[in-house]
Specification:
Elements lengths: L2 H6 L1 H13 L4 H8 L4 H5 L2 E2 L7 E2 L17 H32 L12 H10 L10 H17 L13 H10 L6 H11 L8 H31 L5 E5 L9 E6 L3 H11 L2 H9 L5 E6 H11 L2 E4 L4 H6 L5 E4 L8 H6 L4 E4 L10 E2 L7 H15 L15 E5 L3 H9 L14 H9 L4 E5 L11 H12 L2 E6 H9 L13 H10 L4 E5 L4 H15 L8 E5 L5 H12 L4 E3 L9 H15 L3 E3 L3 H19 L2
Parallel strand pairs: 4-5, 4-7, 5-6, 7-8, 8-9, 11-12, 11-14, 12-13, 14-15, 15-16
Antiparallel strand pairs: 1-2, 3-10
């Protein structure tokens, strides 16, 4: 691991030094073992779709093979590879949503799955034109809504219901360009069919199909996942929590819940609060049970319960390396396959729970909505009984943690904005008007949604934090999700005190509204909250969201989900800045389509920029140009 990385993160420095002493392998060891990564793969010009290949074409015209055996050129190969990442990313978020909807179908007043935000249930039922939304019995309505939501995955006709949340101007663009997503599963299947050998060979056609599939994520799977999670588990409100590895408690049974699906984590939290389970923990010498979150499961738990965040993607191994983790419990996505082997270096039990993400190496306890609480109790009991097996000589917990404020759903943000609305005026109460007012007045120059992962191609968290700190210094309010949100938490940017790092305009807004300058909006599916917030602002002004001084940013992205996200954000009219260049540079025409030509028909485009400081400069030019365009 480079000195640059170690010097930036003292937690990493301590944890990785301990890993070396313990003989534990980490992602940084595996990154070093890769040495120089494949140039053809990096450029996106390696095709292995059929068994005539794999074919590698030259990213430089006139140097090497210019076509694969079937005749596909570099732009076609790049477009197909990129599109397949969109399909996988859309599948991941949307399958997550499907599990949430199935849990809602299991909901009942006396069961573990309950309706905790009935008002939101009825509000969305009205939005979806359910006739008796106000009067139907709560759980009967919940089951009806679950069935309607499941139809969004496979209905034979029509487009997605949530598209109506966008202003008419944006809906008209989608209709004109043919990128209104139909059923979620249909878009994924159609895109994979299009990228089969001997199918689509027009890179723009593939790109458009990919964008429509990405839109099925943002306006379908992710939005359903977010809204139905709120109905089941409660819409997040602003609350205090803390973050970083220092939240692990040496005197308690520590259970890390890692992944993305709140169905599992909610049940684990419930089981850990069972007085009988707490007494069991005390009987084996612990003071209690400490649940900590990792990645997006951490975001889901912290914004609804204040559960502490142990870290983001690159820290999942470091939690085990503390030697104080009794169990690591995982569901789906972003989980290292090597985690069970690492756990064996210590006393930690690794528990995989999803048939979609079964990981060999330790124990598998299948989680089912029908037996959810029983599954969770079995997992928590396993962890508690493992506490006596802890080797005190291997315990080393970094004494670093940071207080943080989390849970800024769209509803919570509007709630805070209400505090600055004149009580003598009805105009603006319960809306985003105060936010649009300060943007239009120039008090803040714009807004940025900062999202995404960690990637060892960047110094971890450095790009996230640099972009956030530079933007708030320049009076740009930031909303964050996923691992970017946890980077902000660890850096102290999700605190009221962080206003001292802001420009004068944003400082004033933070003081009046009593919010941090960087707002935690949840997990990666909750980027749909950002979409909804932006579209509420645009709708209030009667304009296309593409005209607002707003940008999307993924400084350290790495996953296929991020590719789907970037597509639906651009498709929604928001310029999107990527700090990791996607594997597309081998297709010059495809790159031009992404970074320039798409602007002509969608009203937004992708920007590739590795240097976070240069990226911020480009963003400010972008935001100010939008302001000029609006005459503000």
């Amino acid at each position: 691991m480079s000195n640059e990385i170690l010097n930036y993160d003292k937690v990493a420095e301590a944890s990785l030094a301990k890993a070396q002493r313990d003989g534990a392998e980490t992602m940084w060891d595996r990154r070093a073992a890769q040495k120089t990564q494949c140039g053809f793969g990096e450029a996106g010009v390696c095709c292995r779709i059929c068994s005539m290949g794999p074919c590698r074409v030259s990213p430089v015209p006139g140097k090497g093979a210019e076509r694969g055996i079937c005749g596909a050129n570099a732009d076609t190969i790049v477009a197909r590879n990129f599109a397949r990442m969109v399909a996988a990313g859309t599948s991941s978020h949307s399958d997550h949503a499907r599990d949430i909807v199935h849990a809602m179908h299991h909901a009942k007043a006396e069961g573990p799955f309950k309706i905790r935000d009935e008002a939101k249930l009825r509000r969305i039922a009205k939005e979806w034109d359910v006739v008796d939304a106000d009067t139907k019995e709560t759980y009967a309505l919940a089951h009806q809504m679950a069935e309607l939501a499941l139809e969004e995955f496979g209905k034979p006709f029509g487009t997605l219901r949530f598209l109506k949340r966008a202003p008419q101007a944006r809906q008209d663009i989608w209709a004109r360009e043919g990128i209104e997503p139909r059923a979620i599963d249909q878009e994924v299947v159609t895109l994979l069919h299009s990228t089969h050998m001997g199918c689509a060979a027009d890179y723009e056609s593939i790109f458009r199909r990919g964008m429509r599939t990405g839109m099925a994520d943002g306006w379908g799977g992710s939005m359903i996942g977010t809204e139905f999670s709120d109905i089941l588990y409660g819409t997040p409100t602003a609350r205090a929590s803390s973050s970083n590895l220092g939240v692990i408690d040496a005197e308690m049974v520590n259970i890390m819940v890692h992944g993305h699906d709140p169905n599992l984590s909610e049940m684990v939290v419930l089981a850990a609060k069972d007085p009988a389970m707490v007494e069991l923990a005390k009987s084996v010498g612990a003071k209690g049970i400490n649940i900590v979150g990792m990645c997006c499961t951490g975001n889901e738990m912290t914004m609804r319960h204040g559960i502490k965040i142990a870290g983001n993607f690159y820290q999942q191994e470091m939690c085990i390396i503390t030697g104080a983790m009794e169990a690591v419990v995982v569901d789906v996505q972003c989980i290292f396959p090597t985690m069970p082997a690492l756990a064996k270096t210590y006393h930690t039990r690794f528990v995989s729970t999803s048939p979609k993400a079964k990981i060999a190496g330790d124990i598998y306890i299948e989680f089912s909505e029908a037996t959810a609480l029983d599954n969770a109790r079995e997992i928590v009991e396993l962890a508690v009984k493992n506490f006596p097996n802890r080797d005190a000589s291997k315990v080393e917990i970094p004494d670093i943690k940071q207080d943080t404020m989390v849970g800024y759903s769209v509803e919570a943000i509007i709630d805070h904005l209400n505090a600055v609305v004149n009580t003598q005026l009805e105009d603006g109460f319960g809306t985003v008007k105060p936010l649009t007012d300060v943007i239009y007045a120039g008090v803040i120059r714009g807004a940025a949604g900062i999202v995404g992962c960690n990637n060892p191609k960047q110094v971890h968290d450095y790009a996230h934090i640099t972009v956030m700190e530079e933007l708030i210094k320049r009076d740009v309010i930031c909303v964050v999700t996923g691992c970017a949100a946890q980077a902000a938490a660890k850096a102290g940017l999700l605190t009221l005190e962080a206003k001292e790092k802001c420009g004068r305009g944003l400082l004033e807004v933070c003081e009046r509204v009593n919010i941090p300058p960087v707002l935690h909006m949840g997990s990666c599916v909750d980027i749909s909250r950002i979409l909804h917030l932006v579209n509420l602002c645009a709708d209030l002004k009667g304009i296309d969201p593409a005209l607002l001084p707003v940008v999307g940013i993924a400084p350290e992205w790495m996953s296929e989900k991020a590719v789907a996200i970037a597509n639906y954000v651009v498709g929604s009219g928001i310029n999107t800045y990527l700090g990791i260049i996607p594997q597309v540079l081998g297709g010059s025409n495809f790159v031009k389509l992404m970074t320039e030509d798409v602007q002509e028909f969608i009203g937004a485009h992708f920007v590739f920029e590795k240097d976070p400081l240069v990226m911020v400069d480009k963003i400010m030019v972008d935001l100010e140009a939008k302001r000029v365009g609006l005459g503000i």
